[in-house]
């Protein structure tokens, strides 16, 4: 693959201000007639050819200003069209006719069919699979789209923008015309045509524009789209209130399809979704499905301003739209639900997905400087860390100046393709600040580590905190500069109250934020009457790791008394992780883990505290997962020992608190009809976590089996199934529940994904055979991304002991499967393959098996660019 570099960016010689597309839709032979108004940029010589991107295209005809182009005037290959015979005038019309085959398109990029529905996916480079074009985000065009199709096969005809006209074309064909007045890059183009059911509603913007809303789904599933519609209306309102952003078209359409490479796509006025992020009701969706739908609906809607109205100059700037839009959807969910619980969930996600990226071979900056395959850069670093960087800007500026900066950004760059520099400049100008050191967060890969030590001087009544920041080398970046790290903090007195220092010397401190800028710095607080317990990184104010020499008693104190719930959770997690890691070491030495009563008591205390939100208690009760423990250990991982240590702590907590846990389990039983709201979901989360502990304490599956069969909602049902399969797999109760689930939901592949994942994640070596068997299940298909992720993805990322079998058999199976998927859908194969990115941190035997499996992929022939890029960097 070719290497693309940020420093090679150059604007195009030609622009395409207007694009007219006519689609004559047929399953195997679709004709696309593109009429482009082409504009030569000022100063560009007429001898400069017009070079357009293509991908697997078949050119039918080509003309300029109405006259067919002679064979010597151009050169066409499936992936490139170079036109040399161009008119002298600087503005001309180019007509390109191409033929494409939507049915044969299994990569799910460009125009393809999903269960008979024509749909498109153009980001990042899918539009070039429809017609030859300047397929890059800095070429903005006004689109008019005419779709012609069979009335019977495709009664619904949708594209971007507003509907203009519809009509008949004889007995079985009809057409629709759409016009999008907002200039947009080609990656935001969309078309949908098919037979679909729908629900509709409307939203009136604050300036009085009435917007017609519709969600299109498979016939019969309309009622399952109601929650998504509700989330959409709340998102539209929230963006007006929180960011002053109104919607700008007469219609907003969402379509759910069942074959989709990622979560969803923000095409202007026509969002296309993976059905997983639209369909929900009590019977089929869990609370976390509901939360995911709310977040993704909001995310795609928010892109209308951050991504669409202001887009990216080039794909290196991807975080400009993604990091910012993730930040916006995080804030939305925080406002709709419990802010603290939402923040803890974000921190867990960041640590689980982004931290391993930063410490592994695929590490890259939030704004990468080079890529071979852009689709491999839709990563947790660009999205989640990108969001954390925006959050830090708000922490540094404060909410008012942050909003002022956002307003300035919208005002300056509306209708443009912008860069990270433009974004940062808006905040610098709004706040009168200089953010050049801060901008290193976009440039330097890796997670900074802060070593912190403390010194209380009772005689001077001062409390000093000494920081040392370090950042390890990452691929292509050996030497790093110190960063600007905003550290939210609190000092807590022995009575649990916050201490307000008289002054802070040595470092910049604004309000409750310490600004770390040098490699080594010390802040000294004065007027501190008693030795305080410091709470650092409150709200997880920066994406860093913290190595503090805080004594155990202080961590216990913080877990009990920190006024910041995120701080409480962080302290508890640190204690639990330390205990779990010590346990792993003992297990590896052939000994049983030692479990102190204090930590067991602490967990029980928090769980029993009725003054706390049940969702928060559930988070505290859920021990760090096996991969969290492995990540914190960093090297020489033996997943079997990790599981043994974790199970031992679960058991100790379960046995110690069996009685109060059982009472709480009963008290939390669902009463009344199911509601997906955050408070009800929090109670279910706590109750289902208790179910796991109680089942361990009781040593039998009865309680989980009873819950499974009594459940009136998927959250409780899936949780019970999880306990049965993971704790009592192979038991009659587990088999009965699996059979009941299949009998009930066997007609619905999306729901059955839970059944596939549940079995794929059963701990232990036996899961591999189960996964192989399930691949032959009638509902399973490697071609469908949701199925592949539910079975293969879940096995590789969420089954530490099963996937990392000591004999390496699972790696070999995985390798073969990736190669199979790669033949049809390279993007999906490459994404799944990242499951092996942390192979170097395994113990030597497994590490060697994993390396050999990766080498098998690297040496296979006919690898896609996508998989080749990942495997080469992973083996690095
Ligand atoms: N922008 C899309 C992701 C496109 C991925 C292309 N490989 C969804 C989103 O982030 O909202
Ligand atoms: Zn996005």
Automatic annotation (TrEMBL):
The UniProt record lists the keyword Electron transport: no
Peptidase M1 alanyl aminopeptidase Ig-like fold domain residues: 446-547
The protein's enzyme class: hydrolase
EC number(s) given by UniProt: 3.4.11.2
UniProt domain Peptidase M1 alanyl aminopeptidase C-terminal: residue ranges: 553-875
Start and end residues of each Aminopeptidase N-like N-terminal domain: 87-188
GO molecular function, one term: zinc ion binding
Database matches in Pfam families: DUF3458 (PF11940), DUF3458_C (PF17432), Peptidase_M1 (PF01433), Peptidase_M1_N (PF17900)
GO biological process: proteolysis
Lineage: superkingdom: Bacteria
UniProt keywords, alphabetically: Aminopeptidase, Hydrolase, Metal-binding, Metalloprotease, Protease, Zinc
Co-factor requirement: Zn(2+)
Every Peptidase M1 membrane alanine aminopeptidase domain range: 227-438
Transmembrane residue ranges: none
Catalyzed reactions per annotation: Release of an N-terminal amino acid, Xaa-|-Yaa- from a peptide, amide or arylamide. Xaa is preferably Ala, but may be most amino acids including Pro (slow action). When a terminal hydrophobic residue is followed by a prolyl residue, the two may be released as an intact Xaa-Pro dipeptide
Its biological purpose: Aminopeptidase N is involved in the degradation of intracellular peptides generated by protein breakdown during normal growth as well as in response to nutrient starvation.
Family as reported in the entry's similarity comment: Belongs to the peptidase M1 family.
Name of the protein: Aminopeptidase N
């Amino acid at each position: 693959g070719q290497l693309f570099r940020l420093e090679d960016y150059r604007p195009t010689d030609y622009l395409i201000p207007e694009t007219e597309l006519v689609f004559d839709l047929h399953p195997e032979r679709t004709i696309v007639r593109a009429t482009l108004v082409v504009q030569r940029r000022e100063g560009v010589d007429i001898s400069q050819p017009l070079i357009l991107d293509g991908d697997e295209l078949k050119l039918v005809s080509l003309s300029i200003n109405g006259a067919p182009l002679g064979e010597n005037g151009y050169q066409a290959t499936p992936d490139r069209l170079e036109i040399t015979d161009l008119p002298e005038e600087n503005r001309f019309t180019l007509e390109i006719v191409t033929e494409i085959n939507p049915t044969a398109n299994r990569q799910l990029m460009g125009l393809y069919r999903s269960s008979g529905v024509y749909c498109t996916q153009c980001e990042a480079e899918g539009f070039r699979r429809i017609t030859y074009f300047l397929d890059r985000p800095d070429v903005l065009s006004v689109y008019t789209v005419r779709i012609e199709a069979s009335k019977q096969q495709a009664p619904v005809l949708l594209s971007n923008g507003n509907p203009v006209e519809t009509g008949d074309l004889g007995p079985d064909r009809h057409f629709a015309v759409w016009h999008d007045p907002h200039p947009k890059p080609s990656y935001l183009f969309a078309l949908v045509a098919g037979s679909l059911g729908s629900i509709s509603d409307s939203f009136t913007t604050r300036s009085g524009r009435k917007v017609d809303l519709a969600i299109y789904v498979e016939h019969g599933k309309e009622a399952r789209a109601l929650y998504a519609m509700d989330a959409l209306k709340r998102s539209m309102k929230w963006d007006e209130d929180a960011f002053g952003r109104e919607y700008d078209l007469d219609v907003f359409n969402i379509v759910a399809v069942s074959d989709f490479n990622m979560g969803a796509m923000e095409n202007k006025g026509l969002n296309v979704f993976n059905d997983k992020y639209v369909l929900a009701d009590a019977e089929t969706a869990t609370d976390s499905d509901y939360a995911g739908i709310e977040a993704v609906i909001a995310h795609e809607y928010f892109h209308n301003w951050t991504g669409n109205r202001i887009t990216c100059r080039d794909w290196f700037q991807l975080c400009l739209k993604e990091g910012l839009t993730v930040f916006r959807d995080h804030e939305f969910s925080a406002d709709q639900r419990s802010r603290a619980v939402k923040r803890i969930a974000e921190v867990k996600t960041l640590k689980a997905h982004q931290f391993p990226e930063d410490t592994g071979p695929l590490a890259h900056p939030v704004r990468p400087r080079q890529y071979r395959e852009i689709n491999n850069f839709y990563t947790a670093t660009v999205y989640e860390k990108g969001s954390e960087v925006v959050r830090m800007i708000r922490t540094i500026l404060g909410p008012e100046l942050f909003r002022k900066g956002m307003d300035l950004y919208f005002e300056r760059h509306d209708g443009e393709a912008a860069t990270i520099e433009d974004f940062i400049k808006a905040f610098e100008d709004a706040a009168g600040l200089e953010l050049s050191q801060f901008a290193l967060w976009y440039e330097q890969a890796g997670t900074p580590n802060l070593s912190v030590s403390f010194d209380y001087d009772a005689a001077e009544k001062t409390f000093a905190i000494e920081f040392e920041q370090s950042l390890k080398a990452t691929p292509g970046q050996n030497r790093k500069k110190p960063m600007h790290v905003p550290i939210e903090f609190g000092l807590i007195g022995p009575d649990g109250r916050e201490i307000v220092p008289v002054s802070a010397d040595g470092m910049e401190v604004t309000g409750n934020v310490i600004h770390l800028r040098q490699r080594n710095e010390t802040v000294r607080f004065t007027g501190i009457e008693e030795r305080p317990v410091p709470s650092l990184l409150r709200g997880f104010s920066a994406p860093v790791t913290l190595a503090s020499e805080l004594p155990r008693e202080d961590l216990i104190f913080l877990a009990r008394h920190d006024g910041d719930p995120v701080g409480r959770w962080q302290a508890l997690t640190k204690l639990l992780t330390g205990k779990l890691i010590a346990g792993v070491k003992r297990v590896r030495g052939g000994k049983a883990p030692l479990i102190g009563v204090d930590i067991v008591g602490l967990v029980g205390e928090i769980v029993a505290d009725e003054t706390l939100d049940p969702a928060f208690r559930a988070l505290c009760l859920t021990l760090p997962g096996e991969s969290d423990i492995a990540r914190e250990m960093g090297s020489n991982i033996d997943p079997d020992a990790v599981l043994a240590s974790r199970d031992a702590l679960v058991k100790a907590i379960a046995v110690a608190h069996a009685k109060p846990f059982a009472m709480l389990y009963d008290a939390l039983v669902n009463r009344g009809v199911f509601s997906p709201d955050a408070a009800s979901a929090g109670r279910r989360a706590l109750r289902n976590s208790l179910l796991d502990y109680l089942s361990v304490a009781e040593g039998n599956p009865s309680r989980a089996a009873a819950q499974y069969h009594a459940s009136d909602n998927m959250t409780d049902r899936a949780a019970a199934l999880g306990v049965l399969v993971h704790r009592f797999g192979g038991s009659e109760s587990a088999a009965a529940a699996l059979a009941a689930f299949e009998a009930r939901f066997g007609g619905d592949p999306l729901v059955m994904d839970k059944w596939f994942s549940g079995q794929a994640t059963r701990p232990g070596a036996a899961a591999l055979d189960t996964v192989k068997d399930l691949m032959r299940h009638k509902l399973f298909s490697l071609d469908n991304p949701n199925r592949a992720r539910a079975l293969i993805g879940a096995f590789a990322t969420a089954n530490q002991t099963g996937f990392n079998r000591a004999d390496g058999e699972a790696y070999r199976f995985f390798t073969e499967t990736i190669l199979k998927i790669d033949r049809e859908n390279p993007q999906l194969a490459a994404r799944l393959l990242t499951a092996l990115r942390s192979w170097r941190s395994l113990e030597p035997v497994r590490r060697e098996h994993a390396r050999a499996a990766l080498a098998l992929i690297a040496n296979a022939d006919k690898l896609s660019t996508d998989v080749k890029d990942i495997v080469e960097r992973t083996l690095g």
